Amino acid sequence: MTNELDIFVGNTTLIDEDVYRLWLDGYSVNDAVALRVRSGILEQTGATAAVLQSDTMDHYRTFHMLERLLHAPPKLLHQLIFQIPPSRQALLIERYYAFDEAFVREVLGKKLSKGTKKDLDDISTKTGITLKSCRRQFDNFKRVFKVVEEMRGSLVDNIQQHFLLSDRLARDYAAIVFFANNRFETGKKKLQYLSFGDFAFCAELMIQNWTLGAVDSQVDDMDVDLDKEFLQDLKELKVLVADKDLLDLHKSLVCTALRGKLGVFSEMEANFKNLSRGLVNVAAKLTHNKDVRDLFVDLVEKFVEPCRSDHWPLNDVRLFLNQYSASVHSLDGFRHQALWDRYMGTLRGCLLRLYHD
Amino acid sequence: MPGKLKVKIVAGRHLPVMDRASDLTDAFVEVKFGNTTFKTDVYLKSLNPQWNSEWFKFEVDDEDLQDEPLQITVLDHDTYSANDAIGKVYIDIDPLLYSEAATVISGWFPIYDTIHGIRGEINVVVKVDLFNDLNRFRQSSCGVKFFCTTSIPKCYRAVIIHGFVEELVVNEDPEYQWIDRIRTPRASNEARQRLISLMSGELQRKIGLKVLEMRGNAVVGYLQCFDLEGESGLVVRAIGTACTLDKLSSPAAFLPACNSPSKDMKEIPFNEDPNPNTHSSGPSTPLKNQTYSFSPSKSYSRQSSSSDTDLSLTPKTGMGSGSAGKEGGPFKALLRQQTQSALEQRGGSPHRFCRRREFPFFTLTAFPPGFLVHVGGVVSARSVKLLDRIHNPDEPETRDAWWAEIRQEIKSHAKALGCHAVVGYSESTSICEEVCILSASGTAAVLNPRFLQDGTVESCLEQRLEENLPAGCGFCHIPYDELNMPFPAHLTYCYNCRKQKVPDVLFTTIDLPIDATVIGKGCLIQARLCRLKKKAQAEANATAISNLLPFMEYEVHTQLMNKLKLKGMNALFGLRIQITVGENMLMGLASATGVYLAALPLPGGIQIAGKTPNDGSYEQHVSHMQKKINDTIAKNKELYEINPPEISEEIIGSPIPEPRQRSRLLRSQSESSDEVTELDLSHGKKDAFVLEIDDTDAMEDVHSLLTDVPPPSGFYSCNTEIMPGINNWTSEIQMFTSVRVIRLSSLNLTNQALNKNFNDLCENLLKSLYFKLRSMIPCCLCHVNFTVSLPEDELIQVTVTAVAITFDKNQALQTTKTQVEKSLQRASTDNEELLQFPLELCSDSLPSHPFPPAKEHLESASSNSGIPAAQRAVTVEKASPMNEGNFRNRSAPPCANSTVGVVKMTPLSFIPGAKITKYLGIINMFFIRETTSLREEGGVSGFLHAFVAEVFAMVRAHVAALGGNAVVSYIMKQCVFMENPNKNQAQCLINVSGDAVVFVHESELEVVSSQPPTANCQSSCPGGDVTT
To answer: Which sequence ranges form a coiled-coil region, renumbered to this chain (chain A) (predicted)?
Structure first.
């Protein structure tokens, strides 16, 4: 006796959160059944394995049918086939678009192309996330990217509007889209200690201050592309390190202000010129696309690592960066105050976030 | 031109991409009614077109309005080739044809294609302007309301219940016409869908005409079915109960009545029984025992008729007047007067409405209190027929004759039971190739003669009835003469009043009457059976089937009886026995809800006996089995909270001697009842049911008895509307359909193996349901409806539709287990409330209404002190909605614009925690879905899962478009699934129906209500609907 056909359809679509998770995680029906058995559900409910199998199949079929709608979440809200309470719809969408930290770190900043998709096998092996789940996450990134890429208006708002994600998740997707568009390098070994959250934090600051949208909210691609003009202008900052007088003055201003306040004062004093050169050179190089991509590598190499090797406490880094940015205003010979603030304001935030073990 | 149909096509959304090049669609719409077609403009390059068309106007006869569906086709415009169809929407405009229902149909409809399923949605607005038609000989029956609900719909009052209406129409099945060979599957499916839609319209119109002829204005319990007879044609038939209904919506009429049947009481001048002395002289129809009377009419069409319930096994009872004693009294009188005035208004004598009808059948399963006096038991008849081509579709005489024959049989069975009417009546067919089994069943009953006619007879009858009223238990008294019983039965004096005789077990096809006194909770009981049969052709096949039928019926009943006893219960409600015929087997599936009726005697235990008493080890085995059975019974009693009060023998009186030996029909029954008492003290002094386990068959039976596992804790199930013993439903409901098909291994199939497979299939299905719905615990599966079909040689298909309803466990315990004092207290306060009620009523509508009946009621209630708590709980439960009624009466009319986003669906006639404020019309939809890419659609399960979900969606969309937010009395009448995996093809036909309604949550109502009575609010809210 075999079950040739076995279905259950409720007027209100039944959604089992646990099974949904297993499905999202890319487990086959059999694996999912095995995992459910292991969770002790049979003992709790007195059900048999056959019942569990049938139940899992049913849910998988439902999810499979829902998946098409989940690709365009507003459709899920307006469709008539599945009657799902709004709170459940939100849960379905949110979970479908949720991603694994391990996975996102692998693809963050990579081009969301077929080529990358081919690497998913390796990513799956490396992260232990099933290939199916990797594909879903990758396709989600790509789908969101495609939809909002050339759209006018705030990136986060656009994502929220077209994918009905929570604010939190929409921000994360904004970071993913921003990184994918600018192709920031995040996979280097020295960047491995950084979490997705660190990058997302930086992305948000950069979107707010360094993109076209930061100056004009009525242009296409405003939140996705960096403000090219701004990047060009950053060359002007070079004077801060190229002009020896200016550099010395800057250093003395910072040192005066921080004397006695910094635990690592002597190290700071000794390293000031190197650090300043590093930060200003990063700015100056941003005219080239390749250097833009290496932004995070450079920041870690030129600033985070030197400080860390001297064991700067985070608070000292904060005091230093604050003073370092502020002191420029007292440099009479320096004319690009606004530019400096736009650059350094964001960079300071990023650096503080990136500065950890 | 009696009608103008106006249609506006507003917009579309989520259309499929029809042009691969642009990934867009150039859509336009064709609107067709009858032979007239209109088209919208083409909306270029969009998946969300905004046509915003003008009003398309069709001027049509109302006959056409009733028959024809509005057909909307969405197409993709193609300049160079033929336009591609995207899909269709059929809209039944019938709900617009009577004034109280919907006034406009407006909303998003799924665009459906029989090959691709749902492909986007279309927004349509439909209106109808009807002109008055003065033509007396009209062919239309606009204005007759149809209800699937098998009770008087809430918010209506039955002025007259006229009785049985039936009709059938036949046609050739397009699927089997020659043209089908050359047209596409899509064209063929659409032709079929359209034809069936037309035929249902025609059928409904014809039934409507009959109702108008009877001077009724509505059909309640309308059941329409399709018989797909294959080559020989397509039959659409329907039965129903004609009524004259009054809407209880005007503020003067008391609105709250809608919520509880105890209030929509009415007078029922019910069509006269041809044999008046049946009731005038009391039930006393002598009868020849006719359990299995075979009447081979022709060589090939042998009729197996069984006055079912193998009378011997299942004696029957009457129920009825007892309830009237409690609260029916005042109402009856009251409503009689109302009726009279209604009749006078119509300017005719009441007699004119009491037409003699051929068949005194009622498709209703729940009745106004006092309507039902006695229940005799289940009557059923089956007949095996050979199908032949219907030569003249306009004269479907053969089919008519077949059904007439069966109905006649039913009628005579009822008469044999001393009953003049059949309630809870239904008809069904099972077809395999050219053999067809026609089945009909119902419950023989005596209806209150007071409703039958007025005049002199009434007064004397009334007295007789009145005697029963205070007892509150007239309930299960036999309608037949005890000295001349139609079948052997074991009678005792009623355990409640101890005056009248009752049988030991009662089987019925109706719902548990609201005034029934039940102890503990009920449960779903099923008997399952398979019998192999040789493959044969035509007459030989029909004969073989006829020969098998009586044995199947017999075994099904034995199983039911055993299972009932195992549960420690003594009555079955909602009994439905389905016999399905296949190529090489017959399947029997009986479902019913078992309960313990307080008026019936304690059920005896089950006694196992072996025939080789000298064998020691065998004895041991037998006693082991016996112990297991006894344990199970004890466990079940605890589980279902069956603890009837102890009543000493003397009061009950000695059992009436059995008029006949029961053993003749009971294969497994013992000859003497002496050993029974000896054996099983715990289950009573009564005779036990004895099973001989000598042959393997019986062994199997015993095993299967014990393998039925009870639902997991927190779950209850029943196939009736409400679950006895649970009366505090919360508002969460989940209707579902589950379909399973198993493939039998074809090797060496034996009856035993087959039985086991079938049993496992049903049990596993139930287990799956319990597991799936575990998040709703505590909950009850209500109206569990199993349907079996045998689509192919080795396939068994079981379809289940039911609704899971949550309830409040704490409250349930409270009401069923209250201490005597507490419930007494509550009963008395409720009584006071009750007293107010008629008073208010009097001032409202009937100032001259006499008070005494209410007093009488109080007396009867107060004399109740000896009755078990459960019974009082029932009293309380019934009483409370009235208070609710009181305050609801004052509440403002509910707004119709409540949310239509969610559409609830339920097979029940009510929605827990809510009040139905409007019936919008009947939903009767037929869909075909076919695929030629079965694997790609996820195999058979994927295909059917999607289809069932789509059917639900289309039902919901139609209801929402009518302005409704729920479908009640929903039923999936047919789910025919055929597959051909080798060709990667499958086809499925689904037919569903129900009543579209508007409901308002009780909580919302209470907010509006100015001064909710705080004292009773708690008990009344959840309880109110249970009684409905």
So the answer is: none
Q: A280 and A344 share a domain?
A: yes
Asked if the structure places residue A223 within a domain, the reply is no
- Let me know if residue A6 belongs to a domain: no
Residue B914 predicted with pLDDT over 70: yes
Are B312 and B488 in contact by the 8 Å Cβ rule? The answer is yes
> How many Cβ atoms from other residues are within 10 Å of residue B795's Cβ?
18
Range of the domain at A144: 101-210
Residues in chain A with CB shorter than 8 Å from the CB of B957 are: 80
In sequence order, the β-bridge partners of residue B740 are A6, B798
Tokens 């190229």 identify what position?
Answer: A242
The predicted complex's ipTM stands at 0.90
Q: Would you state the structure tokens that stand for residue B655, as one six-digit string?
A: 């059992």
Is A215 within a domain?
A: no
**Joined tokens for residue B832:** 């006071």
For A95-110, how does the pLDDT look when each residue is reduced to its tens digit (9 = 90+)?
999 999 999 999 998 8
Which of B746, B752, B770, B772 to mutate to test binding with chain A, by most A CBs within 10 Å of its CB? Answer: B772
Closest A-chain CA to B14: A75
| Cross-chain residue pair A78–B948, CB shorter than 8 Å | no
Mean pLDDT for all residues in chain B: 72
3-state secondary structure of B115: coil
DSSP sequence for A177-206: HHHHHHT----SGGGTT--HHHHHHHHHHH
Q: Do A9 and B745 touch (CB under 8 A)?
A: no
Say if residue A288 is in the same domain as residue A172. Answer: no
The residue in chain B having the minimum alpha-carbon distance to the alpha carbon of residue A1 is B744
Instruction: Give tens-digit pLDDT for B625-678.
Output: 788 888 888 888 888 888 777 654 444 444 444 333 332 222 232 222 222 222
Residue B797's DSSP bridge partners are B741, B789
pLDDT in tens, B991-1010: 999 999 999 987 776 655 44
% of chain B at pLDDT higher than 90: 26
Task: Outline where B6-114 has alpha helix (H).
Answer: 62-67
> A143 and A63, same structural domain?
no
Secondary structure in 3-state letters for B774-788: HHHCCEEEEEEEEEE
How many Å apart are CA B703 and CA B15, to the nearest integer? 56
Measured from the Cβ of residue B177, the count of other Cβ atoms closer than 10 Å reads 12
Q: What is the Cα–Cα distance from B793 to B744, expressed in whole angstroms?
A: 9
| A219 found inside a domain | no
| Strand-by-strand arrangement of the B914-931 sheet | B904-905, B966-980, B985-1001, B914-931
Could you tell me which chain B residue has the CA closest to the CA of A74?
Answer: B14
Mutate one of B798, B941, B944, B972 to test the A interface: name it (highest A CB count within 10 A): B941
Q: Is A10 on the interface with B (CB under 8 A)?
A: yes
The helix (run of H) or strand (run of E) holding residue B915 is strand B914-931
Spatial separation of the C-alpha atoms in residues B525 and B577, rounded to whole Å: 12
- The total domain count for chain A is 3
Strand partners, B789: B797
> E strands of chain A, at which residues?
2-10
Residue B351, SS3 per DSSP:
helix
Are A197 and A248 in the same domain?
no
Any idea what DSSP says for residue A301?
A: I
